[in-house]
Amino acid sequence: MTIFIIFMLTIIILMKVFQNDIVGFIGERFTANNIKTISNGIVFTDIYANGSHGVQQIDIIAITKKGIIVVEKKTYIGLILGKSYEKQWKVILAKGKQRYSIKNPHHQNYGHIQALLENYPQMTGKIVDLVIFGNNAKLGDGIPDGTICDVGFKRFYNSLPDILSSSQMNDYAQLIEELRLNRASNKRLHKQKIRNLKRP
């Protein structure tokens, strides 16, 4: 019985420590599966691309007939406020009693897209910038185009024109597969980059 209690306490502690990572992982997987089901595309998650500004971690890349959709996934709960040009957005909770700032996710995704284009300039004109929040978020007025909740993906996707053939989709998917060859080393570089940014 004592071993069981210790085991359960350990699980609870680990869940508290890694809560954000767990929620992020589950949210990312849900979004990736939703995109794959609706688009019938080729979907990649947790991709690392090395560019002139260091290694970029890309949440989701979906190769679809509508283009190469590069997704920055966010799992924040609450009202999301922000403009396309603002460096910081706001998350508001508890009827305005709690609020905090987050980086503009489109600015983050811009870095991801630029790293992709540096590696594969042939993707120019084929990439769609998309930020997706979970369904527990509410998007405020003024949120830029290309920012949706998961439930809005089907409508967003259907609004895009078809630009890629099946053979082109496969060609671009092979390029993304190339990025996976150096995933382990690029992931280490990315972690080091994050640690360096956090240093005072």
Describe the model.
This protein has 200 residues and is of the alpha/beta class. It has one domain. Helix content is 45%, strand content 29%. The strands form two sheets. Strands 1-2-3-7-9 form a five-stranded mixed sheet. It is globular. The model is unreliable at 17-24 (pLDDT under 50).
What's the helix count?
6
Order of helices and strands: HHEEEEEEHEEEHHH
Beta-strand residue percentage: 25-35%
Mean pLDDT: 85
Measured between the Cα atoms of the first and last residue, the distance is: 46 Å
Shape: globular
Structural class: alpha/beta
The side-by-side strand order for the widest beta sheet comes to 1-2-3-7-9
Biggest pleated sheet: 5 strands, mixed
Radius of gyration: 18 Å
Overall structural domain count: 1
List keywords for this structure.
single chain, alpha/beta, 5-stranded mixed beta sheet
SSE arrangement:
Elements: H1 2-17, H2 19-39, E1 42-51, E2 54-64, E3 67-74, E4 78-81, E5 88-93, E6 98-103, H3 105-119, E7 127-133, E8 137-139, E9 147-149, H4 153-158, H5 166-181, H6 183-198
Parallel strand pairs: 3-7, 4-8, 7-9
Antiparallel strand pairs: 1-2, 2-3, 4-5, 5-6
Summarize this, please?
With 200 residues, this protein is of the alpha/beta class.
